[in-house]
């Protein structure tokens, strides 16, 4: 259990946090990478997925992109990008060594959960709701904006949460190809047989991952429009579709963290 | 004239560098696969071994855990919360956390991967059991089927399609995650990828990466086949 004592020492030692290669700088670097890649994946993936969901087309692609993403090892894609002539290991501003290669890989691995969740979210909106909206004379855009999007939002957001966790995990693996981020503490520690340091890095990475997950869960709760609608209409007569939808989406939101595509196929059964 | 003759004479001994030599460093090089087939096979066998061990362990643990969890609502929510938390921890960080207990061994990788797979499997098993229609359960009880037989003959078979869907997810991601085991030198094909990156050896890292994806696809196909054999009644209705 000597290793655990080393870990503890490394975590408490202020010098392991300070400086250029210190854990604080690497933590900031990795958070920056995660946020940038998540933003890029959202900007690229979300409009496509929502449009596909609205039109009800490309479902095969939207569901299977997650399956493909799961089969390609993060490590392998990072390795190929780093060994290629472009993007290679070039330094990229605050993103560190092999910054561009890492950002590309992170964005690619952030896309599948966002696309699958957003597509399924729009498809899961009850047919009666969209038909009623159309019957009221709404245009396609209005149906999407006023009926589908609000009902789909909880599941869309849980897709973003899943992407956040995944991107953070991928950013850690970047260290295996000598890329940027906190994973470096782990790989450096292991390469130098300084296991205390490696485990200390792992503890920090894991704690931040749990904080990101819990934090994003709280944000999701705070911005859930149906939750707010429910608290506003307490004691009033709420239309049945509205009371029903949060229950189903809520259950699916908890299910999707682990197995997005079983949920996708379950969705297929229900339709 | 003399120069060309000399060049022609000198060519055979200084044979053209092979496509995986550091001079050419091509991405795809069959010569590499032929020359290093033993090394590649060894890494592949290790990869398959680690993956299968992790999945078998996860399946063996998933059944009792799911059956236990479904007894009380509180236990179920605890199991689900813990497994979600576990799933959040990046693989590169989970391996070191096992190190103080299992050291630099294949067990570190197998246990960590089994935990990831377990979270997926328990969840899908619970989902599958929950999806069994109440009428089916009641009519079985009405026919005098005891609790054990109800579980084995009615509930588990009906939960199987959802469970196998979860198994596909778990198996494919375990194949991919095994590569990260290169951190403790038990990463199967991941070891080759790591070596390839460190030495800028393109043929090695691309071959290992492609084999990884192929392995995932083969395993997925095997489970789909298993699904068809075990649950013939779902044929035609699912993809």
Automatic annotation (TrEMBL), chain B:
Major location (coarse): membrane
Keywords for the protein's UniProt record, in alphabetical order: Membrane, Transmembrane, Transmembrane helix, Transport
Gene3D superfamilies according to UniProt: MetI-like (1.10.3720.10)
Localization annotation: Cell membrane; Membrane
Membrane topology recorded in Swiss-Prot or TrEMBL: Multi-pass membrane protein
The name this protein goes by in its record: ABC transporter permease
Record field: transmembrane: 45-67, 79-98, 104-122, 158-185, 205-226
Pfam families hit by this protein: BPD_transp_1
InterPro entries: ABC_transp_perm/SBD (IPR051204), MetI-like (IPR000515), MetI-like_sf (IPR035906)
Domain ABC transmembrane type-1: 44-223
Family per similarity comment: Belongs to the binding-protein-dependent transport system permease family.
